[in-house]
Amino acid sequence: MKLTFTCLFLIFFISVTLPQNDEMKGKKSINFILEDMDGNKVELKNELGKGPVLLSFWATWCKPCAEEMVQLNKIYNELHPDGFKMFAIAIDNEKSVSRVIPYVKSRGYKFPVLLDTNSEVARKYYAHAVPFSVLIDKEGKINYTHMGYVPGDEIKLKKLILDMMK
Q: What 3-state class would DSSP assign to 61?
């Protein structure tokens, strides 16, 4: 049992500390259709073409996600008027999805939240853990991916977004 725990811990530690996998960088984004919190359908291909689009995969039970969402809300509020789009994609399953709407409303997030209750879109983007971010340029190509969140990650992300908006 102790050996199993140690092995699992080492696998987790190595996967978290390795550099980000840039295999998706430069590839075309994968289209999807998801419902927002009001039941409206949102299709990615209809959101591309005006400016960068950030997909942020998250869950209500994820503490680093909660920290990141506060920072993403600030970035969204500042840059959305200039053409930046963001979709927070909740991967909460059918048991926990009922917490998404109250969670988002209680925190006053302004960005659109989409529901991926079966994690189909998360799997397409290789979001094996949350938080996971995918930054897409206006041509629909993946410019940047990042797994996890530590304070300061939002500074690099904002710089990338601003560079793409030039």
A: coil
The pTM assigned to this predicted structure is 0.85
State the burial class of residue 67 (Cβ atoms within 10 Å of its Cβ: 0-12, 13-18, 19+). middle
DSSP code string of 80-137: GGGT-EEEEEE---TTTGGGHHHHHHHHT--S-EEE-TT-HHHHHTT--SSSEEEEE-
For residues 68 and 78, what is the distance between their CA atoms, to the nearest angstrom? 16
Phi, psi for residue 133 in degrees, rounded to 5: -115, 145
Instruction: Report which of 78, 55, 69, 79 is spatially closest to residue 103, judged by C-alpha positions.
Output: 69
**Alpha carbon 77 to its chain's center:** 16
For each successive 10 residues of the chain (166 residues), what is the average pLDDT? 48 43 81 96 96 97 97 98 97 91 96 96 96 97 96 97 95
